[in-house]
Amino acid sequence: MSSNGTATGPSIKTGRSAVYTKGGVVSSQSSMAATTGVRVLSEGGNAFDAAIAMAAVEAVTCPMWCGIGGEPFIIMFEAKTGKVYGLNGSGKAPMAVDRDYYVSRGYKTMPRTGPHSAAIPGEIDSYYVIQKNFGTMPVARLLEYAIEYAENGFVLSKHLGDIFTNSRDALSEFSDTAAIFTRYGAALGPGDVLVNKNLANTLKTVAAQGPDVFYRGEIAKEMVRALRAAGSLYTEEEFAQYRTDLYESPISTTYRGHTVYETNPPSQGLILLEMLNIMEGFDLAGMGFYSADAVHAMVEAKKLAYADRNAYMGDPEFVNSPTSELVSKEFGEMRRREISMDKTVGNVEAGPLGAIMAGGDDTTYFCVVDGEGNAVSMIHSLSDGFGSRFVAGSTGVLLNNRIGRGFSLVEGHPNVIEPGKKTMHTLNAFMVMKDDKPYIVAGTPGGDRQVAWNAQMITNVIDYGMGAQEALEAPCWNSWPGTDPSNIDDLPVLELEPGMSGEELAKLGAKGHTIKHIDVRPGSTKLILIDPETGVRMGAADPRTDGHAAGI
After folding, report:
1. Considering only CA atoms, which of 63, 88, 62 is closest in space to residue 74?
2. Mean pLDDT, to the nearest integer, of 371-376?
3. What is the Cα–Cα distance from 305 to 351, expressed in whole angstroms?
4. Residues identified as active-site
5. From CA 267, how far away is CA 90, in angstroms rounded?
6. How far apart are CA 552 and CA 372, in angstroms?
7. What's the rounded Cα separation, in Å, for the pair 414 and 424?
């Protein structure tokens, strides 16, 4: 049953069943993290406690996607107050670098790997910010699960093992990385045990001494030493100044009577909100699921929203970003008028600012809901697979490459690198509310694909009446390019999973889309759906890759 009362949606054959419970429920990329989450909930912890423990376990057991050398973006609902919060755990560029620093050394784009690509990681600080404001258990206790997996090792699944096997050359680039993530230069594979005792020691030190040791103590000193020895210009003072940003009332819009919350810039979550505002003017349910018209309308909406992000958005401390205007209903209506249902357009231009208002931002994601109704939607990442590929000395911490992947070197661009600036992020987490309570808690890894897949999860539930597991396993699309500076000028391509009829495919082709057929998309969506009438929670995990939902 969908939220608007329609009884049935399209028939989606699923590979697994959703988890049903009236208690707590979790969904994670890592089965070990999901198990940890339900253990914490079973021991009396709340959703925020479970989120900290799950994030730390994912940081150990999903090292190609996330880690304590990475950055989180989070949406949280606190049941006792009814308030929604956002958290930004991204890091700044070094004060000693700017565009000219790299251009003068012959770079046309930012270095994608190595010490110059890393941002100061916010993961550890975010754990303590969450605990201080919402948690009931000490972080030291919640880190015990991750410490055990780091110290004693965990077995690589078929999926993870294949990634390690295919990444041997990348993991051999830096000696401290190779010492952990290869076996004397040979690739790890499925069934191998990965141990990271240096990371275990770092986590033990953090558990004993708190976040200060990571940003202002011995761990920070070792990370900075290793970075500078390899050419980075970060200083101990810059690590010491790091602060996580926790804020109330994240950016939001409404979609067919539901309120959708997203993470604030420099997350590019605003693109999802703009896209939904544009999509709301189309009868997607009437067009039919995965039909040529429905996919066309959503793809064109995505192109418009991405063009606006690319043209206008940067670190709000550096750029006067027009977030409120871009996520307004009026701006969405104006942009929707540019869509022709008969034909696609190529690379589109950004919408004009002021025309409306003058008249009147690789990865892993997990979600948690507890028995009291607290909810956490969390995405955290190293950016590319294995991030910068650079382990910071003896800490065992694999650093992200967000600066290398995210910043532009185009002079005058709102996202050009500047001293102390944060890059715009593909990372975004969302939560959909119905009658001021969580209804859909969901998200996905996938870089620039995230927004398109998140929009499809929302419309699968709200427009097409799908259940939790069906909404994740339904065939989906993605279009390129997005916001990545390395491919932003590529010609448009529409990727489709199997499931669209030949007749509808022909219609899409007639509209001018260049179609690329893919067998399975690479994402790993997670979703918790809460029945607003009964309070039953349905936890779902995408079977396309590793993933696990569990409840108590």
Report:
1. 88
2. 97
3. 9
4. 363
5. 9
6. 13
7. 9
Q: Both tokens of residue 177? A: 């990385």
Q: What tokens does 176 get?
A: 């401290």
Question: What token pair was written down for 472?
Answer: 């994740």
3-state helix/strand/coil string of 397-459: CECCCHHHHHCECCCCCCCECCCCCCCCECCCCEEEEECCEEEEEEECCCHHHHHHHHHHHHH
Q: Which residues pair with 517 in a beta bridge?
A: 496
pLDDT higher than 50, residue 503: yes
Contact criterion met (CB below 8 Å) for 163 and 189: no
Sign of CA dihedral 189, 192, 198, 199: positive
> Burial of 261 by CB count in 10 Å (0-12 exposed, 13-18 middle, 19+ buried)?
buried
Q: Report pLDDT digits (tens) over 208-249.
A: 999 999 999 999 999 999 999 999 999 999 999 999 999 999
Amino acid at 464: Y
Sign of the torsion angle spanned by Cα atoms 283, 286, 288, 291: negative
Element (H, E) at 537: strand 537-541
| Residue pLDDT, tens place only, 174-219 | 999 999 999 999 999 999 999 999 999 999 999 999 999 999 999 9
| The CA-based dihedral angle spanning residues 202, 203, 204, 209, taken in that order and rounded to the nearest 10 degrees | 90
C-alpha count within 13 angstroms, C-beta hemisphere, residue 372: 16
Q: Report which of 50, 53, 67, 32 is spatially closest to residue 152, judged by C-alpha positions.
A: 32
How big is the CA angle at 380 (ends 203 and 390), to the nearest 5 degrees?
Answer: 60
What residues does 88 pair with on adjacent strands?
A: 73, 245
In contact, 159 and 546? CB cutoff 8 Å: yes
Name the burial class of residue 362, with classes exposed (0-12), middle (13-18) and buried (19+) by CB atoms within 10 angstroms of its CB: buried
Looking at the DSSP assignment, which residues form a beta bridge with residue 114? none
Tokens linked to 501: 């009829």
> Residue 360 — pLDDT band, cuts 50, 70, 90?
very low
Contact 186, 168 (CB under 8 A): yes
Element (H, E) at 367: strand 363-369
Q: Which two tokens stand for residue 505?
A: 């495919």
Tokens of 425: 């992020």
Question: Is the model's pLDDT at 351 over the cut of 80?
Answer: no
Residue with tokens 């209506």: 333
Distances from the Cα of 539 to the Cαs of 46, 451, 460, 527, in angstroms?
17, 21, 15, 6
SS3 of residue 317 by DSSP: coil
| CA–CA separation, 432 and 441 (whole Å) | 6
Which two structure tokens, joined as six digits, stand for 267? 């997350």
Q: E strands, 138-251, where? A: 154-155, 193-194, 245-248
CB 439 within 8 A of CB 527: no
Tokens of 459: 């419309």
